[in-house]
């Protein structure tokens, strides 16, 4: 086989996309692209500049000025905004709360999709997001749509934050944030979250990372005709 495939992973917040995409990329020796980190970086840059999601002209100008680079590092993927590492800052509850508003803007989507397609030029990429299989790489050789129940997704997110799962107040907060983002991401006009026609749907509720990884590897092997055994 010539060019290595592109693998698209889409799904809602907390569905396990990031963990699975990273594990899959590592196992296959492919590059990993976290497109959510790009939208989060735009939201961070816009907040710093005092630009709201409704100001299309100011957002357009901001997008011309900023540079967003995703790079691999020994500690995992890093996000550089204008050369500075913002990997932690883009994950704060404040950015999580506002990111979907910025991500729904066509100016923002156009600029990010262009950068994402550049990353896929040579194949050998696992890309995760909301519109990867539908808009960014509609010809991706393998597509997955990863989902899980809302409660399970909220519990996972709470664990990511290192918080106690029995903290019901915090759980309610996270659940509300995720439900709100689900609704904005699904209902938006441009590139909404949807299941691409040819995507394999995986409900990760109650499955371990390894179990999901095995399902994915089997599908990759089926499509590429190569064994993915390590
Ligand atoms: O990790 P989590 O699922 O919380 O979110 P993320 O993947 O970091 O994405 C953050 C937000 O960026 C999403 O809620 C979407 O609003 C937006 N996004 C998008 O619109 N399109 C993508 N391809 C990726 C993310």
Write the layout of secondary structure elements.
Layout: E1 6-10, H1 17-28, E2 31-34, H2 35-49, H3 56-65, E3 68-71, E4 78-81, E5 84-85, H4 93-103, H5 106-120, E6 125-129, H6 132-136, E7 142-147, H7 150-160, H8 168-187, E8 200-203, H9 209-224
Parallel strand pairs: 1-6, 1-7, 2-6, 7-8
Antiparallel strand pairs: 3-4, 4-5
Helix pairs in contact: 1-9, 2-4, 2-5, 4-8, 7-8
Bound molecules: cytidine-5'-diphosphate.
Cytidine-5'-diphosphate binds next to helix 2, helix 4 and helix 8.
Write a concise synopsis of the structure shown:
The protein is of the alpha/beta class.
Strand-pairing-aware structural class? alpha/beta
Molecular shape: globular
Summarize the main sheet. Answer: 5 strands, parallel
| Secondary-structure element pattern, one letter each | EHEHHEEEHHEHEHHEH
Work out the helix count.
9
Record field, number of beta strands: 8
Low-confidence stretches: none
Order of strands side by side in the largest beta sheet?
A: 2-6-1-7-8
Strand proportion, as a percent range, falls in 5-15%
Helical proportion? Answer: 40-55%
Chemical compounds bound to the protein: cytidine-5'-diphosphate
**Mean pLDDT, rounded to whole units?**
93
Terminal CA distance: 18 Å
Rg over CA atoms, rounded to whole Å, is 17 Å
What does this structure look like?
The protein is an alpha/beta fold. Helix content is 50%, strand content 15%. The protein is built from 9 helices and 8 strands. A 5-stranded parallel β-sheet has the order 2-6-1-7-8, sandwiched between helices. A hairpin with a 2-residue loop joins strand 4 and strand 5. The chain starts with 5 loop residues before the first strand and ends in a 6-residue tail after the last helix. The relative contact order is 0.21. The mean pLDDT is 93. Cytidine-5'-diphosphate (CDP) binds next to helix 2, helix 4 and helix 8.
